[in-house]
Amino acid sequence: MEFGFGLPTRGPMATPQSLATLAHKGEELGFAILSVSDHIIIPKDVASIYPYNESGTFTGGAGGECMEQLSLLSFLVGVTSSAKLLTSVMVLPHRPPVLTAKMLATIDVLSNGRLIVGCGVGWMREEFEAIGAPAYDERGSVGDEYIRAFKELWTSDHPTF
Asked: What is residue 50's DSSP assignment?
């Protein structure tokens, strides 16, 4: 069994110095996985039901600032040496699929194979609307399509999709 922890993507601990310190200390203590959550923005008003607590209320704060997941993972590649790096959970419809596949492959190569991709389709309708992502109600089928595209791009010598 491996243990890990999530790194902050917003708030006072989401600075280069703090993130590097947390990542180094985590590796030093033997944590095997560092995870980074995914939001492009946090809308000021969120009416969507948050599925991960009993109240259904998102407690992420009213500010829209947050670090972008794949950029932060790229930073962590440079400041870590052994911990696996986990997208927890990458919201597939938030980014173009070919560019996302390329970015993930690059992070995996630069980390010497330490990337773990956790995929999901999101829960916050307001975020989808704010960033112009594909229709929220179609996110499941869009996510399935992205995964098929990723597999083709990552495994085929002459990918087509």
From this structure: P
Pairing state of beta strands 115-120 and 4-7? unpaired
User: What CA–CA distance (Å, rounded) separates 5 from 119?
Assistant: 17
**Which CATH number does 4-155 carry?**
3.20.20.30
Q: What is the dihedral of CA 71, 78, 8, 29, to 10 degrees?
A: 160
* Neighbour order of strands in the sheet with 33-36: 4-7, 33-36, 84-91, 115-120
111-115: average pLDDT:
98
The Cα–Cα gap between 117 and 90 comes to 7
The pTM of the full predicted model, rounded to 2 decimals, is 0.92
Give the pLDDT confidence of 135-146 residue by residue, as tens digits: 999 999 999 999
3-state SS, residue 84: strand
Report the DSSP beta bridge partners of residue 123.
Answer: none
Domain layout of the chain by residue ranges: 4-155
**d(C-alpha 93, C-alpha 142), whole Å:** 6
Read off the tokens for 9. 């993507």
